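Reminder: ligand-aware prediction takes two inputs, not one.
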Amino acid sequence: MDTTNEVKVQEEYIEKVKKINEGKNPKYNILTMGCQLNENDSEKLCGMLEKMGYTKTDNVKEADIALFNTCCVRENAEDKLFGKLGELKRLKEEKGLVIAIGGCMMQEKHITDKIKESYHFVDILFGTHTLYKFPEDLYKAIEEKKKIEDIIDVDGEIYEGLPIKRDSLIKASVTIMNGCNNFCTYCIVPYVRGRERSRSPKSIIEEVKHLAKSGYKEITLLGQNVNSYLRVEKEKNIPFDEYEGVNSFATLLRAINKIDGIERIRFVSPHPKDFTDDVIEAIADCDKVCKLVHLPLQAGNTKVLKEMNRKYTKEQYLELVDKMKKKIPNLTLSTDIIVGFPGETDEEFEDTLDVVRKVKFEQVYMFIYSRRVGTPGDKMPNQIPEEIKHKRFNKLKELVESQIEENNQKYVGTVQKVLVEGESKNNTLMLTGRTDSNKVVIFEGDKTLIGKLIDLKIVSEHMWYLKGEVLN
Ligand code: 5AD
Ligand code: SF4
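Here is what comes back for the chain with 5'-deoxyadenosine:
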């Protein structure tokens, strides 16, 4: 399919909506749920809306459009969406607010059915594969007063050249691939984001070069499974053009490392089973690639991992960590863990604690298992009672927090390279930035330091942040 032509069609719709909006100064409010990929999608939606003449407001009461970019990885996001929709009903009646809902949750039929039945005042529903068509959907909703449902089940194409309005002037996310082929049995993502497809090396490199020219210092490469970048294309003989030597994730890291102006490169999320030696070597060799690697564990017990379809054992995970620690100086690790997967016994859960004790993660993102309609996990008979899941969660949290406290002590007295991101949210007299290991550092300093990579002496630790001092 010719996606360039499709993008041109959308540019025409952008112009049409812009005309309607002339002299009106309309506003939009956006609520984004979920992961960094969704945030990056929201930046694209904001880019389109701003080109159509809308400006952003944080107050939905002032808005002409309320937009939700939804996530469905865990159940609390659903409660949040339905709660918010209830609140918006009155605004819809009073001032004709346009309500649009997009993203992963819209790929789930039981959710869209519920919206159509109980929240029929919603104007636009669009899915993950039709985000690029938002200008057309919006035009039809406001000009033709139609209810729009624009959701398809086939894998979307990759659309290049959509407008984008980024949240930061210093850090930027770049999506390198869409979808997932792994089908972990707890996870809804493969069903709502479709199969893996990679962006072309050229379009990624050009985007990063453009970001570097615009003054961006840190790039985060995004994908559900970044270290299998271009794998499917190679396996299925889908042609792609190599560009600046890029034909894999490792070569992509190396090529981006050469781009002048970029100072830091991060990536989320890799899969342990695809962590090949060439990627480990690239991380070790590339000075701009941060030495914090997010390596989702999910569970520490081999039987549970098998049930989860993760394709590695406890021992293989630990061996990988050992190998990485040996090959990458100053490596730090973060992870995702799910507690209470169906059938997990107390004993098996102990293996998760054991891995956490051994690896000493810099950061652990902890989740209580949440049943997702349509996944194999949801059909497993031996679901764990809520109170046991919570007990395990608290036990894990206690361990993680004690490790973080201990780990924080190691920073005190050291000098850390910090990328200064801006004023601290809680105290605008202070600046905030992050270490290579992604720890927040708050310090007093001149605003001219914003956007610079500087050395800070760490003077104290406060659980979720460190305090630093500028070295003179
Ligand atoms: N329940 C709980 N956590 C989940 N995750 C994915 N699916 C589920 C689920 N059904 C977690 C995984 C993943 C992270 C993004 O969300 O840990 O890595
Ligand atoms: Fe979900 Fe597993 Fe794919 Fe990650 S790798 S998106 S957890 S199925």
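DSSP finds 15 helices and 19 strands in the chain. The CA atoms of residues 33 and 70 lie 5 Å apart. We will return to this case in the review session.
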